[in-house]
Design a protein that fits this description.
The protein contains 5 helices and no strands. By secondary structure, the chain is an all-alpha fold. The chain has a single domain, classed as 434 Repressor (Amino-terminal Domain) (Orthogonal Bundle). The longest helix is centred in the first third of the chain and has 24 residues.
Length: 95
């Protein structure tokens, strides 16, 4: 019989450890916020690139969800350039 692993979130399923899970989740949330900003403003990729201070191919990677190509620092910088405020909330983990 095949054993099925159960995870609390998709991030736990693809992350190797709690730290990588958190980083993946945060990067994905930032990317989603940036994609929504592009949509809400009606920007084409070239326009978004100008607003975010990056190249159009980077925006293409962003909208395609290529999480592994972006660091948290890069995404936070792009969010700031796009007029978005990033807040960090730190809580204790539950055992």
């Amino acid at each position: 019989m095949v054993e099925i692993n159960r995870f609390d979130s998709v991030w736990e399923a693809i992350g190797d450890d709690p730290e990588s899970v958190d980083k993946l989740r945060l990067r994905a949330e930032l990317m989603d916020a940036l994609r929504r900003r592009i949509e809400d403003q009606g920007w084409r990729q070239v326009e978004a690139a100008q607003h975010f201070g990056v190249t159009q191919p980077r925006i293409s990677d962003l909208v395609r969800g290529r999480v592994s190509l972006f660091s948290l620092d890069t995404l936070i910088g792009m969010a700031g350039a796009a007029g978005l405020n990033v807040d960090l909330q730190i809580t204790e983990t539950t055992a």
